[in-house]
Model the fold of this input.
Amino acid sequence: KKVAKTETTTKFNIKNSNIKLLISKNKEIKNYLLHINQRFGIPIDVLSDYKYLLKGKDIFFVNSNWNSTKLSVFVRIGIKFGNIDKRDFAHIHTQAAQHFSNHISKNVIEINNIADLKTYFSGGIIKLSACSKGQVIVKYKNYTLGTGVCSESGIKSQFPRALRTGNIIFT
Done:
């Protein structure tokens, strides 16, 4: 038998968030998508098949049919597309590179040996004689691993720290 009114133990306030859900033609996201298109050759019509969420300097993407009027209730939405740097350029994230791998046609570096693969997965620098400066897509045996940044010293891995492990088993 219930004798008293039930009270919540904690109160949860939903704050207004700075998340914006945008279609690809929106002026706030369009230039970032054009930059990714020019850098990696992903066709604009492929990028237009998604909606994009701007959350500060981070960009996420979702199916174009998804919609919500209360974005503030979500902690995370969609797949990480990339981020915006201090020069206002977009950089593609490993998850987006893997998702769009069949459409990427430019600035792709194929690594060919296990030592370079281990270096990439551990976040190191793969020594190369020449590569186009800036962000690149890194592949191994035609499988897209993620992204890296080419410089004079080689390719600096951008493989996410959260996905790096102490032991990598190669079969």
Notes: The chain has a mean pLDDT of 87.
